[in-house]
TrEMBL record:
Functional summary from the UniProt entry: Mediates the post-translational oxidative deamination of lysine residues on target proteins leading to the formation of deaminated lysine (allysine).
Single biological process term from Gene Ontology: collagen fibril organization
Record's catalysed reaction(s): L-lysyl-[protein] + O2 + H2O = (S)-2-amino-6-oxohexanoyl-[protein] + H2O2 + NH4(+)
Lineage summary: Eukaryota, Metazoa, Chordata, Craniata, Vertebrata
PANTHER family for the chain: LYSYL OXIDASE HOMOLOG 2, LYSYL OXIDASE-LIKE-RELATED
Cofactor section: Cu cation
Domain SRCR intervals: 51-152, 181-293, 317-416, 426-535
GO molecular function, one term: copper ion binding
Entry keywords, A to Z: Basement membrane, Calcium, Chromatin regulator, Chromosome, Copper, Disulfide bond, Endoplasmic reticulum, Extracellular matrix, Glycoprotein, LTQ, Metal-binding, Nucleus, Oxidoreductase, Repeat, Repressor, Secreted, Signal, TPQ, Transcription, Transcription regulation
EC number: 1.4.3.13
Organism, as annotated: Amphiprion ocellaris
InterPro entries: LOX-like_protein, Lysyl_oxidase, Lysyl_oxidase_CS, SRCR, SRCR-like_dom_sf
Name assigned to this protein: Lysyl oxidase homolog
Length: 761
C-alpha cells in the first residue's frame, strides 16, 4: 500500500511542477536537470553536413533551415516535416530543444538545391543526415515550401562545435554554448554592468579566449550589442599585454568574422582556424578585449553614457507598453505627433537600429502583430528596411503609404539590456507559483547583507509594478498589503525597507523613494509585509479623443430633473442653494474608452462590494473610474469637476472579437481586449456643471483609472485634454488628444498636468 501511495504522490508532484512549466522558472526555482552533451560519433558513410538558421528572422534562434552539403548551401522542404525533425535541427545546432516549426517559406524563400524532402525523423537522430528521406538532393519541392524552425533560448550544457567540413570554414555560422565579457582589471571587476574585459566563448564546457589576430571593430560592435551596449570604444592595450604575459590564456580554435550588423554572435561567420604557436599562444599574441559604452540609463555616471548629441533633445523614437526596460511598441515622432510602425518586413536589423538609437544593445526580438499592445494615432512608417548601421530608424528606407496597415500590425521590439544584477537583490517568497509572493529584499544591515520584508504602509500598484519589472516577471496584477497567507522565509520576517514610493518607471525598488536606514513601520513585517502578483500581460485603457470632440454640446436642465445626479454629487456645490425650478448649464459629452492592451481590464473590487446606483439602474464596480475637470489656461481649476463611477462593459468590439462583459442582470464587468465601453452624452453625470463659468478659453481634461486601482501597461495615455471655448451661449471643443500623443513642445502649450504619471501621489 505504501509504495502505491508514494508513486501517487510523486505523480501529483510532477503534475504540480508541470502546471507552471510554461511560465519558466525565475531565480530561486530550480530548473529541471539537463543531460550533458556528448559529441556524436558518426559512421564513415554518413553524409557530412552543417546547418544554419537564415532568412527574415525576428529572433536569433529561429529562421529558415539551411543545409551546407557538397560545397553549397540549400534548404529543406516542408513535406512530412514534423516537430521531431525540428528537434534534430535544433539539437544539431546546440539548442536544448525545438519550440515550433513553420512551413511555406515563412522566413522567405531560400536559394540553391533543396537537399532534404519527406524527412521522417524520430527526434533522436544525431544529425539531420541520419533521418530517412527521399535521399539527399532528391526533391520535387519549390523554395516556396522551405521549412523554418524556432529553437529554445537555452543551449545544451557542454555543447562543443565539431567542424565536419574543415575546408569550408568561411561558410559556417558560429555555434558555441555561451559567450561572456569577463572583467580582468580590478577597476572593472567591481563595476556593474561589466563593460570591459576578455571576450570568452564556452565550448565543450570550458571557457576560452579568442585570438585577436583577425579581430575587427565590427566583431566588437556585435559583442557589445549582445550585452546591451549601443557602442564600443578603445581601451588601454598595454595593461592587457602585461596581464596576458602573467596568466597564460586558453584559446578557442577559431576566429570570428562579423559584418557588424548582426544581432547575435550566432549570426556571424566562423573565421579561419586559429594558428597557435608551439607554446599555445596565437600569432597575434593576445586574447580579444572589448570595451563597451553603456547607454545613459546604465552608465556609472551621467557623463560616461552613450549619447548622440551634447544637449538633451526631443527623441524621435520611443517604446511604449513594454513590461521591462528595453521592450515595447515602437513609436516615432513626425510633424509633432507620435505614431506607430507597421510590421510589414519588420525584422531584427530594423529592430536593432531602434534599440541602439535608444541606448540599448542589439535587438533580442522583433515583434509583430501588435504583440505589445496597439497604439493610437497615425501609422507613420511601413515596410521599413535598414542596413543595420543607421543612427536612427528614421534614416532607414520606408514606405510612407500605410493604407493597408492598422494598429493590429504595430511593430515592437525587445532589446538586449546590460545585466545590472537587480534580480539578485529581490525575491518573492511563499507564493503558489513563481509569479506571486511576499516581497523580500536584500539590504545592508550592520555591515552585512540580510534578507527582509518591505513595509506595506502605502504599498500600491506603482510599487508592485517596479517589483515585477525588477524580477523580469512582466506587469503587476495585484499589490497586497497583507501576506499572512504566504509564509515566507522566517529569517526574513523583519522589515528592512519602509516608506516606499515609486513613480512606476524605476528599474529597481531601491531606486524608489524610501526611508533609508531610519525605518518606520507601525504594522511591522511578517504577516503584514508587502506582496505582489505579476502577469506577463496587462490592459491599457485609452480614451477616444475624436468622440469627445464630436459629441460635446451644452444643455440647460431644470433642477427638478437632476435630483438623482445631485444625490450622486455630479453637480457643483452651489446647486444645493438654488430652487427646484432653476436651471443648471451642463457641458455634455460621450466617453468611449478602448482597451488596447494585452489582457482584459477587470475591476479590483469583488462583486460583493459593488454599489447599486439608482440613477443608472445598475451596479458600479469602480467608485472612481474617471475624473472630469475644466482648467483656465494657467492651470487653475475653474469648474467643479467630479469623480465618476462606472459600470464597465463591452459596448462594441473590433471585428472578430466577442463581447464578454455587460452590466445588465448583475453581469460580469470589465472591458475585453479589442473592445470599448461607451458612456453616452445623454447618461446622467456625463457632464461638467458650468453654470457659474465665465466666457473664455479653457482646458478640458479627463483622467481614466486615476488612482491606479487596476494595473495597466501604460498610464501616460490615461489622460485626455482638449481646448475649450465658451462664449456664454455656445461651446466649442477642439484639439483633443491623449497624454503623450504629441511632441513635448506641443504638449507644453496645454498647461496643467502633463500626464497621468504625476497625478494623485
Amino acid at each position: 500500500m505504501l509504495p502505491r501511495c508514494a508513486v501517487i504522490l510523486l505523480v501529483l508532484l510532477k503534475l504540480g511542477h508541470a502546471q507552471y512549466e510554461h511560465l519558466g522558472y525565475p531565480p530561486g526555482y530550480p530548473d529541471p536537470e539537463q543531460e550533458q552533451y556528448t559529441a556524436p560519433q558518426l559512421a564513415p558513410d554518413t553524409p557530412r553536413i552543417q546547418l544554419r538558421l537564415a532568412g527574415d528572422k525576428r529572433k536569433h534562434n529561429e529562421g529558415r533551415v539551411e543545409v551546407f552539403y557538397n560545397g553549397e548551401w540549400g534548404t529543406v522542404c516542408d513535406d512530412d516535416f514534423t516537430i521531431h525533425a525540428a528537434q534534430v535541427v535544433c539539437r544539431e545546432l546546440g539548442y536544448l530543444e525545438a519550440i515550433s516549426w513553420s512551413p511555406s517559406s515563412k522566413y522567405g524563400k531560400g536559394e540553391g538545391p533543396i537537399w532534404f524532402d519527406n524527412l521522417h525523423c524520430t527526434g533522436k537522430e544525431k544529425t539531420l543526415a541520419l533521418c530517412p528521406s527521399n535521399g539527399i538532393g532528391v526533391s520535387d519541392c519549390k523554395h516556396s515550401e522551405d521549412v523554418g524552425v524556432v529553437c529554445s533560448d537555452k543551449r545544451i550544457p557542454g555543447f562543443k562545435f565539431v567542424n565536419t567540413l574543415p575546408n569550408h570554414v568561411e561558410n559556417l555560422d558560429i555555434q558555441v554554448e555561451d559567450v561572456r565579457i569577463r572583467a580582468i582589471l580590478s577597476s572593472y571587476r567591481k563595476r556593474i554592468p561589466v563593460t570591459e574585459g576578455y571576450v570568452e566563448v564556452k565550448d565543450g564546457g570550458k571557457w576560452k579566449q579568442i585570438c585577436n589576430a583577425e579581430w575587427t571593430q565590427f566583431n566588437s560592435r556585435v559583442i557589445c550589442g549582445m550585452f546591451g551596449f549601443p557602442g564600443e570604444r578603445k581601451y588601454n592595450a598595454r595593461v592587457y599585454k602585461m596581464f596576458a604575459r602573467r596568466r597564460k590564456p586558453t584559446y578557442w580554435e577559431y576566429s570570428v568574422n562579423c559584418t557588424g550588423n548582426e544581432a547575435h554572435l550566432s549570426s556571424c561567420k566562423l573565421g579561419q582556424a586559429t594558428a597557435l604557436k608551439s607554446n599555445e599562444t596565437c600569432s597575434g599574441g593576445l586574447p580579444v578585449v572589448v570595451s563597451c559604452v553603456p547607454g545613459r540609463a546604465f552608465a556609472p555616471t551621467p557623463m560616461t553614457g552613450f549619447r548622440k548629441a551634447f544637449r538633451q533633445e526631443q527623441p524621435l523614437v520611443r517604446l511604449r507598453g513594454g513590461a521591462i526596460v528595453g521592450e515595447g511598441r515602437v513609436e516615432v515622432l513626425k510633424n509633432g505627433e507620435w505614431g506607430t510602425i507597421c510590421d510589414d518586413n519588420w525584422n531584427l536589423l530594423s529592430a536593432t537600429v531602434v534599440c541602439r538609437e535608444l541606448g540599448f544593445g542589439t535587438a533580442k526580438e522583433a515583434l509583430s502583430g501588435g504583440r505589445l499592445g496597439q497604439g493610437m494615432g497615425p501609422v507613420h512608417m511601413n515596410e521599413v528596411e535598414c542596413s543595420g548601421f543607421e543612427k536612427s530608424i528614421t534614416e532607414c528606407f520606408f514606405n510612407k503609404e500605410a493604407v493597408d496597415c492598422s494598429h493590429e500590425e504595430d511593430a515592437a521590439v525587445r532589446c538586449n539590456v546590460p545585466a545590472m544584477g537587480f534580480q539578485e537583490r529581490l525575491r518573492l517568497s511563499g507564493g503558489r507559483n513563481p509569479y506571486e509572493g511576499r516581497v523580500e529584499v536584500l539590504m545592508e544591515k550592520n555591515g552585512s547583507l540580510v534578507w527582509g520584508t518591505v513595509c506595506s504602509e502605502g504599498w500600491g500598484t506603482m510599487e508592485a509594478m517596479v517589483v515585477c519589472r525588477q524580477l523580469g516577471l512582466g506587469f503587476a496584477s495585484n499589490a497586497f498589503q497583507e501576506t499572512w497567507y504566504w509564509p515566507g522565509e522566517v529569517s526574513a520576517d523583519a522589515v528592512v525597507m519602509s516608506g516606499v514610493r515609486c513613480s512606476g518607471t524605476e528599474m529597481s525598488l531601491s531606486h524608489c523613494l524610501h526611508h533609508g536606514h531610519h525605518l518606520s513601520c507601525s504594522k511591522g513585517g511578517g504577516r503584514n509585509a508587502a506582496g505582489v502578483s505579476c502577469s506577463e500581460t496587462a490592459p491599457d485603457l485609452v480614451l477616444n479623443p475624436q468622440v469627445v470632440e464630436q459629441t460635446t454640446y451644452m444643455e440647460d436642465r431644470p433642477m427638478f430633473m437632476l435630483q438623482c445626479a445631485y444625490e450622486e454629487n455630479c453637480l457643483s456645490s452651489t446647486s444645493s442653494q438654488v430652487p427646484a425650478n432653476s436651471y443648471r448649464r451642463l457641458l455634455r459629452f460621450s466617453s468611449q474608452i478602448h482597451n488596447n492592451g494585452q489582457s482584459d481590464f477587470r475591476p479590483k473590487a469583488g462583486r460583493h462590494s459593488w454599489v447599486w446606483h439608482d440613477c443608472h439602474r445598475h451596479y458600479h464596480s469602480m467608485e472612481v473610474f474617471t475624473i472630469y475637470d475644466l482648467f483656465s489656461l494657467n492651470g487653475t481649476k475653474v469648474a467643479e469637476g467630479h469623480k465618476a463611477s462606472f459600470c464597465l462593459e463591452d459596448s462594441e468590439c473590433d471585428e472578430g472579437i466577442e463581447k464578454r462583459y455587460e452590466c445588465a442582470n448583475f453581469g460580469e464587468q470589465g472591458i475585453t481586449v479589442g473592445c470599448w465601453d461607451t458612456y453616452r452624452h445623454d447618461i446622467d453625470c456625463q457632464w461638467i456643471d458650468i453654470t457659474e463659468l465665465k466666457p473664455g478659453d479653457y482646458i478640458f481634461q479627463i483622467i481614466i483609472n486615476p488612482n491606479y486601482e487596476v494595473p495597466e501597461s501604460d498610464y501616460s495615455n490615461n489622460i485626455m485634454k482638449c481646448r475649450c471655448r465658451y462664449d456664454g451661449h455656445r461651446v466649442w471643443m477642439y484639439s483633443c488628444h491623449n497624454g503623450g500623443s504629441l511632441s513635448t513642445e506641443t504638449e507644453q502649450t496645454f498647461p496643467g498636468l502633463l500626464n497621468n504619471q504625476v497625478t494623485h501621489r
